[in-house]
Amino acid sequence: MAQHFLLSAAARTLSLRQIYKAGEDAAYATFCTLRWPETAGEAVCPDCGCFEVYKITTRRTFKCKACYRQFSVTSGTIFASRKLSFCDLLAAVCLFVNGSKGRSAVQLSRELGVQYKTAWVMAHKLRESMQDEYEGQKVAGEVEIDGAYFGGHIRPANHRKDRVDRRRRRYQTGTRRVVIVARAREGRTLTFVTRNEADGVDLVARTVTAGSIIYADEASHWDHLSRGYAMGRINHEESYSNLDGTHTNGAESFFSRLRRMVRGQHHFVSPKYLHQYANHAAWLEDHRRESNGDLTMRLAGNAMAAPVSRQFAGYWQR
């Protein structure tokens, strides 16, 4: 029986021991290279684009010769106004991608020795940089679509006589959301969060290119897509896969990872941030065959290319 990729040595190309053994200077050089790959790590002014800068080595900052602005390697990025060392930042990214089903903020805070608030904001900033990979993306070819509901659990009363019918609208909490997924069999996994699965019809139509083949279950709202796409339908009451290749197993694989992430790692996810956790699971699915070293460099590069977070910068200070 073939060995699973995550169990092989090819999946383990970076460790915390290597990061901390290399030291702060090596971690700093890594972030410089990721920030300015076109100049092999040599600083470029983020304001005027000037290549001539002074190095202020005592504070690891630079000063532009043209506009006289002082800046650092993390200025204007997700990591702007950081307090952690560069070793700790790189270790945080490595720990974050090592969790194949995600990593909770409590666990991250214990491993890094920082406050829970610091770990929570950092994790969301990393998810925000993941989301940038999918901005404006579309899927094509053979595309599987499906929806699954998350959140809104109502705890039943202790005594049977006090229990209510939790299916009725008046007993709902209003926090239940559905995650819609459109996953190309040879491409990306796009996710959307809506209140009803039927709301995903228009979203799928806008993100699946013309000429694609869409595979879906027997839910009636997907019938509207047959006007513009060739479709394959699978009735899950009869089978999960047909001999002609009709199935939605790729979409179900994504939901399996997302459910384990929500239930096993985070236990509770606010509907306000459910889209970030869905994108996180999609990112892990799309890059599941890459080593943890490649994933660390990919995510750190995304973070250095992303602008300052408008949602999580100064989050606890409102």
UniProtKB/TrEMBL annotation:
Q: Which residues form the ISXO2-like transposase domain?
A: 138-286
Query: What domain of life does the UniProt record list for this protein's source?
Result: Bacteria
Q: Which Pfam family is one of this chain's hits?
A: Zn_ribbon_IS1595
Q: Which NCBIfam families match?
A: transpos_IS1595
Q: Which PANTHER family match?
A: DDE_TNP_IS1595 DOMAIN-CONTAINING PROTEIN, SI:DKEY-17M8.2
Query: What is the protein name for this chain?
Result: ISXO2-like transposase domain-containing protein
Q: Which organism is it from?
A: Hyphomonas chukchiensis
